[in-house]
Amino acid sequence: MTAGEDPGRVDVGIEAGVATVTLRRPGKLNALTPEMLDQLGRAVDVVRASAARALAVRGEGPRAFCVGADITRFAGLTPVGMLGWTAHGHRVFDALAALPQPSVAVLHGPAFGGGLELALACDLRVMSSDATIGLPEVGLGTVPGWGGTERLTELVGRARAKDVVLARRILDAETAQAWGVVSRCAPPDALDAVVTDLLARLCAAAPVAVGLAKAIIDAAADGAPSGVLERLAGAVTSSTDDLALGIAGFRSRVTPSFTGR
Questions:
Q1: Domain shared by 220 and 103, yes or no
Q2: Which domain holds residue 234?
Q3: pLDDT of 73 strictly over 70
Q4: Nearest Cα to Cα of residue 181 among 93, 121, 91, 94
Q5: Is 1 a residue whose pLDDT tops 60?
Q6: Structural domain tally of the chain?
Q7: Residue 2 placed within a domain
């Protein structure tokens, strides 16, 4: 990093049950530095330990969600240094993916390289209709290094993942939704309303059940037997106050206010 250059920062705040993690380096299109990765890891720890029921991940400024890793910070790395850089990103993104709270990446602008990999580590992605996404690393002479090859392949299959990575195909919002990379798209002026509604739905569900359901889905994607996990998770939820509240609400047709207990 050159003298006086902004290393960026990552902020986390919690309001009304929703945690928001924001990448703040808009002058560099929120390109990620090692300092930001450190702060992102700490922010994930804060969210994990909090009472937040859902997480939104955002990028500051109107121009981009995140354009990936700051090239100037890894261009001169030795092989050992590059191993450390990629391992660092994997640790942080894996911790994000493993949160018990569901996470939503808000793609209001371009998400490329490590920026898309960050979004892929979230559970859900909401994309502005004028945004674009891609993994263009091979055009730079390297490869996606923070889980993108695995997570994208899980979503779109091997052939489409190769189209994005090898041919550097840039996806618009319509294609990204059709391929299952994002779950919702919205015009720019409606994006926040769509995100707010989605977060409200996530927060309104029973937290213990949400965390267990998320864990079961992820385990099933890795080949774990749902028949075993669902029985165990169902047994856990049977002892919660929230299940009693949910059943009572169903019977009385009153929306329950879950406590997380």
A1: no
A2: 205-252
A3: yes
A4: 121
A5: no
A6: 2
A7: no
